[in-house]
Amino acid sequence: MIVLPEPTLTHRAEGGRDEPVLVWRLPEPVLAISSAVLGGGIGPCGWVVNASVPMSYDRDDPADHLTGIAAGLGLSGPGVGLLTGVNVADVVATEDGGVLLWATVGLGVPIRAAAPAVEAVPHVGTINVVAWVPVRLSAGALVNAVATITEAKAQAIRDLGWDATGTPTDAVCVLCPTETPGESHGAAYGGPRSTWGARLARAAYQAVLSGR
């Protein structure tokens, strides 16, 4: 049975600064679903990085930037890369019934997803979530898991007193084994009242609430 390791905090030299990076080096490839700019979609994953960048970050090649960061850390093959304007050393880790979850929470620019008008946002804060479910999830359950985490995140933000649902650049990554012994299709559901979805929701809610 795969046990997802805790992330390692390291640093990289960039632009004359010492920037922190969280790195998950997976003992074997897993299945991932992610909205990240690098490694987004559903597919195999051997590593995850969550890298801090300045709040003034304005590069138009974030995927290439993350590819370079990963290469500098000795990472190769398929992986997921996330960026955030907050210090990833402040990561919040939560656990619920086998679900492991890590969140870096930046609420500098809270927004409502369906706001009537969208204005340019010069600086962004980001909520990045990386979660591990110890059983294989079906493709539908993976999609549902991302939605469940997003709902729980929005619930936490509202309970913190913000009239918001997130920030403009939030990202989610959910990881699970490529297979579960004895199961051919994987767990079918990831919604908030399913076994694994409920655990993801509680873990995400607590992480965002604690990471404010």
Write out key terms for the chains shown.
single chain, 212 residues, L-amino peptidase D-ALA esterase/amidase, 31% strand
Q: N-to-C terminal Cα separation, in Å?
A: 34 Å
Query: Low-confidence spans: pLDDT under 50, at least 5 residues?
Result: none
Class computed from helices, strands and strand pairing: alpha+beta
> Total number of β-strand segments?
8
The general outline is globular
Task: Outline the secondary-structure elements.
Layout: E1 8-14, E2 17-34, E3 41-52, H1 62-72, E4 80-84, E5 92-96, E6 99-105, E7 127-132, H2 139-159, E8 171-176, H3 195-210
Parallel strand pairs: 3-4, 7-8
Antiparallel strand pairs: 1-2, 2-3, 2-8, 5-6, 6-7
Helix pairs in contact: 2-3
Task: Characterize this entry briefly.
With 212 residues, this protein is α+β, with helices and mostly antiparallel strands.
Give an overview in words.
By secondary structure, the protein is α+β, with helices and mostly antiparallel strands. The protein has a single domain, classed as 4-Layer Sandwich (L-amino peptidase D-ALA esterase/amidase), CATH 3.60.70. It is 23% helix and 31% strand. The chain is built from 3 helices and 8 strands; from the N terminus they run βββαββββαβα. The chain has helices at 62-72, 139-159, 195-210; strands at 8-14, 17-34, 41-52, 80-84, 92-96, 99-105, 127-132, 171-176. Strands 1, 2, 3, 4, 5, 6, 7 and 8 form an 8-stranded mixed beta sheet that branches. α2 packs parallel to α3. The model has no long low-confidence stretch (mean pLDDT 92).
